[in-house]
Write a structure and sequence with these properties.
The structure is a homodimer of 221-residue chains. Chain A is of the alpha+beta class and 221 residues long. Chain A is built from four helices and 13 strands. A seven-stranded antiparallel β-sheet of chain A has the order 4-3-2-1-7-6-5, with no helix packed on it. A five-stranded mixed β-sheet of chain A has the order 9-10-11-12-13, sandwiched between helices. Chain A is elongated, with a radius of gyration of 26 Å. The structure holds a DNA duplex (15 and 15 nucleotides).
Chain lengths: 221, 221
DNA sequence: GTGTATATCTCGGGG
DNA sequence: CCCCGAGGTATACAC
């Protein structure tokens, strides 16, 4: 990894055109060839960047970075204050405990926490608009599509509406109804869901893990 | 900006739990207090980060970063290879020429490229769900809502559907129909649009700029 | 502050 | 390869 602290100006043209006026910034060049320009604020987003694969051409006082997609980043240096190279070597990946994936897994094992008597037909039931997170059946025999989200927002209601539209074209499944399951549901999403006849259920993640624990204990005393 | 190259391991707990095993990485601390951990690949995303405002506690061999939201980042150092501080000063902001904004401007000047005889009623016509990009009228007098996107995707169709729902509650405007204008429209968006009676028009950005040139020449010979 | 739309989003998975 | 969905998304903007 090469770290350059320099007074520079930057031009990017590609998916849009952007210009950074002359100022002191950090220019990073990583082992995979990608380039990022950072200011002294903001942890996440670089001001400008070019992702690998790309080509870095070092000219007199400027760097030209180009990629196969025709994007172009030009860094013009006025004064280089520091320029260092560091060998980092390969790094093991990040391990995450995702929330939505686990929520879906837990709800698949215990759909009845959403509504009494609910039983699972299938996880990731495919439609031509995408997979339904959980396809269930209620005690009355009606099909229930469940969309699992960490946060229940308007987009989740729209997504579930589209799925229901498709499911209800299948006479075997129709009439299907929907449940939006989330740790929290915004008032707007709740309103829209109500207007569409969709039920919202707020799920407590920790209780859900508890339910799993209890269910396991039933079978492994 | 402080740049530390070090063998370290990282724990994050907050919106989820994540762990980075021991390896050599870059740890950046910026002037606003935010912290980012980068590996030697990927221009854009840090492996871990904490955005400002937060608090950095330097202990023996480790840093603990906490924020008011209760998130927590722990960097445990095994070996520090480099540690440097750089004064960057304030930087002027990034200027951008967006694509969607200009497309909207060009189409407002020449709505007839979307459909023969279309004329502009208003740009950014306000509804209580947000502004309609272009409100137009066709030669038959029907109101046409136009949603402008760089890429036409399902979200754009949903957005336009919600706007139409609102417009059609106004007896003065009803019955309104919709056009999704984009440089490219995905097949799924096209399918959904068809099912909703929404027209998709693919707009060639360069031709559009040409149309503007022609229109200007008509009035400035 | 909340909610919504956007992003040079990035990133990964599935057809 | 494209399309789609998720993200500790971040970020800007309106209410």
């Amino acid at each position: 990894m090469r770290l350059v602290i320099a007074r520079c100006e930057v031009e990017y043209t590609g998916r849009l055109s952007a210009h950074l006026p002359m100022a002191t910034r950090l220019v990073m060049v990583k082992a995979d060839g990608c380039v990022a320009v950072h200011s002294d604020e903001g942890a996440y987003k670089p001001l400008n960047w070019m992702s690998a694969p790309n080509h870095l051409e070092e000219r007199e006082g400027e760097w030209l970075v180009t990629n196969p997609a025709g994007e172009r980043l030009l860094v013009r240096f006025e004064e280089v204050l520091s320029d260092s190279e560091h060998a980092l070597g390969v790094a093991p990946g990040l391990t995450k405990d995702g929330v939505e994936a686990e929520m879906q897994r837990l709800l698949a094992e215990a759909p009845f926490v959403l509504e009494e008597g609910l039983s699972l037909l299938r996880r990731e039931y495919p439609t031509d608009l995408g997979p339904v997170d959980l396809l269930c059946r209620d005690p009355a025999g009606q099909v229930v599509a469940v969309e699992v989200k960490r946060r229940g927002e308007i987009g989740g209601v729209e997504q579930l509406t589209r799925y229901l539209e498709r499911l209800n074209r299948d006479p075997v499944l129709a009439p299907a109804r929907g449940i939006l399951a989330a740790q929290a549901v915004t008032p707007q999403a709740r309103t829209l869901a109500a207007a569409r006849g969709i039920t919202c259920v707020e799920v407590d993640y920790d209780s859900l893990r508890g339910v799993e624990g209890n269910a396991l204990r039933l079978f492994t005393p």
